[in-house]
Amino acid sequence: QEEEKWDFVLVSDIHQVGSEKEMKRKKFLDELRKKGFIIKKIEDRKVFYGVRAPKQIFWKYQRLLRKPNSRLQSPSDSQEIPVTTRIRIVNFILQNTVTPDLEKLRDLMKKKVFEAMFPLHEKEEKREFLKEHWARWSEIFCPQPIEKIRCYFGEKVALYFAWLGWYTYLLGFAAAAGLVVFIAGITTFNSSQVSKEICEATTTIMCPLCDQQCPFWLLSDTCTYAKVTHMIDNEGTVLFAMFMAIWATVFLELWKRQRATVVTDWDLYRWDEDEEELAIDLINNLQHEPRQYQHSYFRSTIILLLVLVMIAVMIGIAHALVIYRVIATALFTQSPFEFVREQANMVAMVTGAVLHYITIVIMTKVNRHVALFLCDLEKPRTFSQRENNFTVKIFTFQFFTNFSSLIYVAFFLGRINGHPGNYVRIAGKWRLECHPSGCISDLFIQMAIVMLLKQTISNMMEYLIPWVKCKLCKQQWRPRKRRMMLGEEEEDEDPCKRQWLSNYQLNEVNIFSLFDEFLEMVIQYSFTTIFVAAFPLAPLLAFCNNLLEIRLDAIKMRRLCRRMVPRKANDIGIWLQVLEAIGILAVIGNGLVIAITSDFIPVQVYKYLYSPCLLGNNTDMDCTTGYINHSLSIFRIQDFEPHTKVPKTVPDFVREEIKECRYRDYRNPDDYSYTAQFWHIFAARLAFLILFEHVALCVKLIAAWYVPDVPQWVKNQFLDRQHNDLRKELSMMDFSTDV
């Protein structure tokens, strides 16, 4: 007997006969029957309804969206329609069927009339192929079967995996370049003159790092951090930042070509989503009137104000994280544990980064609810428009959630803190300062911790939670063995029941399932490009993560989750514009990190304006000799503010013998005003920033022009197809005229 095929399964609790829920369910199913749907009921602990659409629905679809040369006269003439298209059409009709009470399926599910709806994973050749050659860890370095993915999950999912595979492939080149720069920094950090001077500064007394009970300290105490800083803050980093700006552009241009090739093979190059949606609307309801385009300036203003409020909240959270670090540093300096006391700044920085990750996890959930609420206020015309609006809002919120703290550390912390004797404080209490080794090491450590946590804990939870849920659900639904009476024959179980139940026990999917994967990757892309000058290993971490992510997502979709409703698409949608915006932000962000956060510019200014090499007496001397002493200003102890309490006795020092201390800045020792060197460096930073960004943007534009978005053979193939279709039409017109 041939196995019955069902397009969708609806699941409901067993409602009392005559109850309101039971009546609503009956009305909805009656509406489906009026449209010619076949419905099969199976009762267990839940009630399952198998739904199969009539052939004429798919014939109408083919007729309305046929090619110019097709001639389908009746349903019997229709070609076999792909399963993904069947599921998509049936899902649309189910979602838009209206009961006499003017309720849709979405309303009925909110009222618990129906609990779930899903298409079935079927035992077909494509599914088994994906299980063997895609959803396996052993296939981690093998190419993905994109065509098979498309035939089973639809074009939208296939394009996601095609994009992710292409991104990962090109990320390998960026990862290799970042690793070379990092290793080059490691091999040269012992020979760095700047690091040597810091490590040898055993008599350079630095000013206390906080107001209460923080001791004086030696510059040589930061020797290890100075070497780490040199690994990421060197000439190679500047070249790598420029390389990544070009890489981001080339990646997107090559993806556009790859996408054009793929969708041309699928015959979707000039597919129109609005036309298809209108066609299915009319198939579902011939009296349907399309929703008109509309725009409200008042509503847009309200939404803009609410978005600004959310951004202000996220910036406030970033400030709170910085304040936490300041307070934590002060507390850790008084810890009874020697290690915590000595490494107070580092411990505060690490715990602050972990706290930053926790806020990202929490705010991600908040951001989603707020973005959905704002989309409801907008009242978009179509689902795709709603999805685009939601994408822009959620990415904006997530960007500020992930990067507000990093932006603050990179560009503001340590720039507006004043100087000893006149510190800028929050609420008159807390000083805001970077790690003693500089803000770039601070940024490096924060990015490393956040990326590692996101790629370990988040990925583990992303896989383990569905796996555990799936196991628990199967355990809960395990059939109880019934005792057989003497002479009683065992009833044959309906094969549909076993299949429907096994699909029901899998994890639920929704319209955000694929969206979440895209958002996760785009945020990762932001980490990989925007602050790569401070963390050259970001592409390597992303590359390793993506190799696992592809198979992780494949296993989830294929084994742990219900079948996703396939969606037709010929590109990755508004995500492409988001990625292009990130490319521009990457140029600005890396330019600012090199110009403002790193010591690259001050070192270069010193080499060419103030170094001993300018005297020309000793050609063997390193031109950065004396830089550290040159970059530290002098502060007289007597000028401390009255409420600053410095310990009277500190290790290795006698308090009364210390008359002055040093701090990182360019100020005169007399009145603490800025020196001429400060303004030289300020001008050099500004000039470098303008030059770097203009050169990088020009190179990006040249790369975008040089690499065509669409391969010429794709354009020629489409041109030939149009030419042949027109010739065929004209030939048929001449034939009918002759007859």
UniProtKB/TrEMBL annotation:
**What does the entry list under GO cellular component?**
plasma membrane
Name its cellular compartments.
Answer: Cell membrane; Membrane
GO molecular function per UniProt: chloride channel activity; protein dimerization activity
Q: What main location does UniProt list? A: membrane
Mind telling me what this protein is named?
A: Anoctamin
Kindly indicate whether the keyword Cell membrane belongs to this entry: yes
- In this chain the Anoctamin transmembrane domain maps to 149-717
Q: Which Pfam families match?
A: Anoct_dimer, Anoctamin
